[in-house]
Specification:
about 525 residues, binds adenosine monophosphate, alpha/beta, Rossmann fold, seven-stranded parallel sheet
Amino acid sequence: MTSFKDFGLSAPILAALAREGYSAPTPIQAQAIPHLMQGRDLLGIAQTGTGKTAAFALPLIHRLMEPHKRTAPHSARTLVLAPTRELASQIAESFKIYAGDLPISVEVVFGGVSIGRQERALFRGVDVLVATPGRLLDLIDRGSCRLDLVEALVLDEADQMLDLGFVHALKRIAKLVPKKRHTLLFSATMPKQIASLAEGYLTDPVRVAVTPVATTAERVAQHVVPCETRLKQAMLEHLLSDPAFDRVIVFTRTKHGADRVVKHLDRAGIDAAAIHGNKSQPQRERALAAFRDGQIGVLVATDIAARGIDIDGVSHVVNFELPNIPESYVHRIGRTARAGAKGSAVSFCNREEEPYLRDIEKLIRAQIPRLSVPKEVQTRAAEIGRMNRAETEEAILPSRAPRHHAGRPDVGRRGEGHAANEGERNQARGGKGPRGPREQFRARAEGPAAESATREPRRGEANGRPQRSEGAAGGRRFDASGETPRSRAGAPTRKPNAGAPAAAKGGERDGRRPNRQRGPKRRDD
Ligand code: AMP
């Protein structure tokens, strides 16, 4: 079996790998590193989770040391382009780890944060610059960055960059880097556009593919739950009541949808945070950190915000809404089953989404087993529906709203300790503000508005104190015992893959096909 020592990597890099506990190269590393050590261009077809970052970072770090030159002001010797801030940050972090004790300078630049600090960081030049294309061009236009001394160029997740409409930015950047350079292009899928991009960028490349084009990671157990939109929230709660769903990424198509899911989960006593383009960078980072640390068990994300997120141990991916671009499905489910682990993905599919499902199944060349909606989910969905109607009525006609909440179905309904919202939880402990680490996290993540929401009474609450029929302490789903309010209440839980998957029909079709945007997608970031 190949070992990292066989590649001729320098001792400090090998020491860093040992510290990270990498005992053997992954397939993409075994195939790519020997060619990259010799300076060959490379076209890598690999999803995140395969170890592709180390596959390019290790040989590039090694080559930066042979010899290690002084960097020229405002320049970068190695340039890595990535589609999103999260992925760019993670790549930069990986470079720093793999460089170990070597004197390699690494900087990351992306939009949404102050450009001044990035300009200062580039002043003396850097060995490795990881950038999103838009911000890189801003820096170039301001005269703070030049690319004429780039020795190695990496395009990571090239298919996503094209999807996000970065094609023109990439063309501009290509004109600014020297013709004679070392170029690497990685993509999870291989649409025609990528093939022509590769042709334009790469010279006599080695082609390395660790998963066949657009083939879904085989380790991911996949299921589809055909269900109407009104059942989705209850179905999600039902799945999350299974302790096996301990680290879950829920995908929605829109930012608004992500916020709505978090709001409903919050009402059901389930800690979750959303990451999407409307969240500030610090909010996103806090949400990711809390998810990584296990402070929250559910992260609700849009495709773009979640791209390239590297979090080990994601137990499940739930597609609350199916993506209209089938390749996005492959990216989404790739968040679970990372680094050799087993993973599971459950997708909700309403009638309008059936054409998306057909496209996905065509792409992955497999039929995804169906699960039917359990009876208790129908009951819970009806409750949620009543709750929503009551809230809407309250919002529209505050004067007609009940003076207290005794009759509201969401208060004191789901077993002991369920608090319907942050305000109620806070009221229940005497208005002292957030207490546990998860609540503190939420208050920080949502900013001052949410913090004040934990203190101020909501409209329609009598004396700011909702009337509750039962106690309000505890009741969080992801508690240390792993016990869930549902299991405590004795309600049956059902694993998505338990029992025979009922081939529930999605109902009759109305022949309408949802609007599909195949071109550059709306930018969510
Ligand atoms: P990537 O595909 O680059 O996003 O990497 C996915 C995950 O695999 C990251 O958490 C890496 O730290 C981890 N990883 C990469 N290479 C190895 C290796 N050779 N052995 C163990 N873990 C690895």
